[in-house]
Design a protein that fits this description.
With 288 residues, the chain is of the alpha/beta class. It folds into two domains: 1-77 and 250-288, 3-Layer(aba) Sandwich (Rossmann fold), CATH 3.40.50; 78-211, Glutamyl-tRNA Synthetase, Domain 3 (Glutamyl-tRNA Synthetase, domain 3). Helices cover 37% and strands 15% of the residues. The longest helix has 16 residues, at 17-32. The protein is globular and about 60 Å long. It starts with a strand and ends in a 5-residue tail after the last helix.
Length: 288
């Protein structure tokens, strides 16, 4: 098996040292195995993507000494593929339109029942809605999101796999492996196609990983439980399953997670202060 890894940043800010950790692990994993390293620009959020951030991603990764295959995949150019995957889920009877606003969801949701991101689990306001209700909102010009009927999806999973659990393989920093049980039901009726964009993070990621043949996914441990939902989508869509590594999240001394607004930890700022690529490797605990 040829090892294929990827680094998939969103161009809505400058890269920081946490991104460098993800990119370097993925890059070094591929190179050590004489495999392939891919760069993907996850820019489905059209309102937040900026050309200058895309250019900066290339510049910063080049500065780190990384090389990748061309052409680079830009998700904003592949909405048709994501909608085709959504159509398969619709054909299975697993997606339904939802017109709920955030305020309506918050008002109806149980505040004590939250998803792995800490948001209230969707209370099913449009699950089972009549065709007339949906048609009336569509006729009024309202655009729906498409949500996964989680109960129906879990039934479809059981029909396909029986009592065989849904799992994924996780590789730790020391190279040891373990099998993790996926628990997608904790996400509730998650959004699979957004109102404003004909895709979602979860859908676009599994579609792209499958069509690019990605064998090893490296990302922060803050996305660990996102793998549960993505494993479910992979299974429903008949996609192969990568091996996962969820590395530590680099934080400030007070425990705050780095973000793209932390300019003093941004790669460009550190480079301007005289840091080298070897310095960045040392900062994140990787050999130079």
């Amino acid at each position: 098996m040829t090892v294929i890894t990827r680094f998939a940043p969103s161009p809505n800010g400058y890269l920081h040292v946490g991104h460098a950790l993800s990119a370097l692990i993925a890059h070094d994993t591929a190179r050590a195995a004489d495999g392939r390293f891919l760069l993907r620009i996850e820019d489905i959020d059209l309102d937040r993507r900026r050309p200058e951030y895309i250019a900066a991603i290339f510049e910063d990764l080049n500065w780190l000494g990384l090389t990748w295959e061309e052409p680079v995949l830009h998700q904003s150019e592949h909405f048709k593929e994501y909608l085709a995957a959504a159509d398969k889920l619709i054909a299975l009877g697993l997606l339904y339109p939802c017109f709920s606003t955030r305020a309506e969801i918050l008002a109806a949701a149980d505040a004590d029942v939250v998803d792995p991101d800490g948001a209230p689990v969707y209370p099913g306001l449009w699950r089972g809605a009549s065709a007339e209700s949906v048609g009336a909102r569509m006729a009024a010009g309202d655009a729906p999101a498409l949500r996964l009927n989680m109960a129906a999806a879990m039934q479809a999973l059981k029909a396909k796999r029986g009592d065989e659990p849904l799992t994924f393989v996780e590789v730790a920093a020391d190279g040891s492996q373990r099998t993790v049980a996926a628990e997608p039901q904790h996400w509730g009726d998650a959004i699979i196609v957004r109102k404003d964009v004909p895709a979602s993070y979860h859908l676009s990621v599994v579609v792209d990983d499958a069509r690019q043949g990605v064998t090893h996914v490296t990302r922060g441990e803050d996305l660990f439980r996102a793998t549960d939902l993505q494993r479910l989508l992979q299974e429903l869509l008949g996609f192969p399953v990568p091996i996962y590594t969820h590395h530590r999240v680099i934080c400030w001394a007070d425990g705050r997670k780095l973000s793209k607004s932390n300019r003093d930890m941004g790669l460009r700022a550190l480079r301007d202060e005289g840091a080298t690529a070897a310095d960045i490797r040392r900062v994140i605990g990787m050999s130079a």
